């Protein structure tokens, strides 16, 4: 049975058979062709036996393996490598089919290559998942043929390999490296000059040229008979909470990813940046109920906890309860913190229902509401209109686009900071706002 399961006939074999059948058919007209057809059939049989012996003469002539990261990064290009080892003593022709998880809907995956005797080869391809969860790979199928090319033998490796897809940790690592090396501007992060004196007192020291004259401590100067200045350090360990709305408004898709996944990826990155800035990062997710609460802390263990919590989040198809969110924040977070709320309002009436709770939250904390710009509407607005129907659609799109900007204006008028961002630029725009708050000394 194992032999039959691994035994395949190539297209070359069937083409030759068709040619021989045609020779036999033409033999009814030209008798000499019958003899040629018989010789061709005999040669085909001999070559098939030789081909069979070459391929099956070595018990384990081929080794294969699939390698990837322990987890894939959602929304990013993830590298998958296929390692092939040839133990045959002749040149082999390979067709490689990897059974990719059904979520990708890739039906035409095929590598064709050759492999010299007793050599190795590594092939590489990339996958971009757009949804978190468990992704199951099937078998790595390698079909091997010789130069004769009539028969193929199938090898199967790495069967039933499961790899989870987590929030975009590749994006998080990229921003971490840029933050550590002070190169965040390369990713579009604005370099904002710190203003004011929102700093913590550290010590009194002697004045040196270049110190700010406004920090002179006159009492210490009188005691020491020498100019003394107060030395400050930047405020640290402020609390930054990312709050992710999991209601129905976050189910809307853009470039195959839902708004919830964009918000989750941005939450992971902003938490990492906050910790690099010596702040504490926390997380809350909610819809009709408060789903997850992760108190603000620092450290690698906290970052791993945030990653694990975000991995398990799913969108609900119900209206989110902002009243319960306000009550939870009132009870659970006692100190003034930066609250970054990822949500979406498509109409002014939707905002009006939740505005009292947002204003109440902003009264106790520094609240930043992150809203999503509908890029499909933007592309429709920029396209020319040639018919009455297109003019009508464009007018409706302008109404929705204008209403979205009114929502942002209304939030700011009520003392709530707001960011309107495209899903693709969400992470960069949120980080810029966080750094702006730090520079202005708001947190």
From TrEMBL:
Keywords: Membrane, Transmembrane, Transmembrane helix
Chaperone found in the keyword field: no
InterPro entries attached to this UniProt entry: DUF58
Ranges annotated as spanning the membrane: 12-33, 39-57
Domain of life: Bacteria
Domain DUF58: 204-371
Matching PANTHER family: BLL2464 PROTEIN, SLR2013 PROTEIN
Name recorded for this polypeptide: DUF58 domain-containing protein
